[in-house]
Each structure stands twice: as C-alpha cells, then as structure tokens.
Write a structure and sequence with these properties.
This protein is mostly beta strands. The chain has one domain: DNA gyrase/topoisomerase IV, subunit A, C-terminal (Neuraminidase), CATH 2.120.10.90. Helix content is about 0%, strand content about 30%. The protein has no helices and 11 strands. The mean pLDDT is about 90.
Length: about 190
C-alpha cells in the first residue's frame, strides 16, 4: 500500500523529511564534510510524483547525509561527526546563506585521521546524542560536552574506537525525557 510521495532517480534514496512553515532555511550536509544553507522559498511546491529540485551540487562519490531546517534567527548549532570518532559543533550563524544548488562550504575537514562525515544534526546545548561504532561500542554524551568550534576544522575526539577497521556508523539525537507519574499510583482511578 501507500502512495508515491516523490519520484526518485535510480540509486537515490530519501534521507529526511521535515515539516516547515514556508519561512525556514534548509541546511544539507554531505559525506565529504560540505554544507549548504539556503532559503526554503527557493524550493517551489510540486506534485507528489515530481523529482524535486537540486539542493546541493555533489562531486563524484559524495552524498547528502543529513538535512536540517532552521529559523533565520536560530541560535542552535550543527553537530558534524566523522567515521573516525571526531566531531564538532558549529553555530548555524557560521553557515552563510547561498543559492540552492551550489557546492556548499566546508563544515568539517574530512582527512585520513577523521574519515568521512557520518552525522549531521541540529543540536542545542541541553541535547544528548548517541554514537554507534561498527564493532559494537556505543556512547551517550551531552552535546555541551562537545566543544563549539569554527567550520573549517577537523573537530575533537568524541569516541575512542576499538582498533583497526572500527568506525562510527551512526549518530542520533536522543528524544527529550519526559517525567511521568507511575501507573497504578493511588491517584489513578480504578477501572
């Protein structure tokens, strides 16, 4: 079942969907550590089966790994994590607005030490993230424990990997924990 939401070229895949109010800005992050920021109004409405418009021009071997939407006055940061266990937070204000379809600007230097980018997330200081490595190591950490530094840098070590061939394979922002009352307390009416 289901209905077609958009057309995809062979080899393409959908990586993110976000609701917006039409007044936001879009950031796209790539495996090679590039980011583009453009106004949402540059993306025109289309029918369900349309293929959409180009957000960023990719070099051979590069791919988009994340998409975030922000308000023009956002004070959040972009967390970029590499497969070598390095990461950094960069204030969204350091990403200048470009025209949709450009090549982007450096968000993190991808080097032999760092590896390619595997995570691209909008974060706030009070968020927590989880990193997962190929050989099973998992790390949960507070975002404010990760230094906020400029775009054109390699980042700092977040996760120590377990030897040759291990690499970070996933990064996720954890949902906010909501306190709730115990089910079955004396304040709960009996059925």
């Amino acid at each position: 079942g289901g209905i077609i939401a958009l057309g995809l070229e062979s080899g393409d895949r959908l990586i993110s969907v976000q609701l917006t109010d039409g007044q936001r800005e879009i950031l796209l992050g790539t495996r090679q550590g590039l980011t583009i920021r453009f106004k949402e109004e540059e993306v025109r409405s289309m029918g369900r089966t349309a293929y959409g418009v180009k957000g960023i021009t990719l070099e051979e071997g590069n791919e988009v790994i994340g998409m975030e939407t922000i308000t023009p006055d956002s004070t959040t940061s972009i967390l970029t994590v590499t497969e070598g266990g390095y990461g950094k937070r960069t204030p969204v204000g350091e990403y200048r607005i470009q025209g949709r379809g450009g090549k982007g600007i450096i968000s993190v230097k991808t080097t032999e030490r760092n590896g390619l980018a595997v995570g691209f997330l909008q974060v706030r200081d009070d968020d927590q993230i989880m990193l997962m490595a190929a050989q099973g190591k998992v790390l949960r950490c507070k975002v404010d424990d990760i230094r906020e530094i400029g775009r054109n840098t390699q980042g700092v070590r977040i996760l120590d990997l377990d030897g040759e061939g291990d690499r970070v394979v996933g990064v996720a922002r954890l949902a906010e924990v909501v306190e709730r009352e115990d089910v079955g307390s004396e304040d709960t009416p009996e059925a």
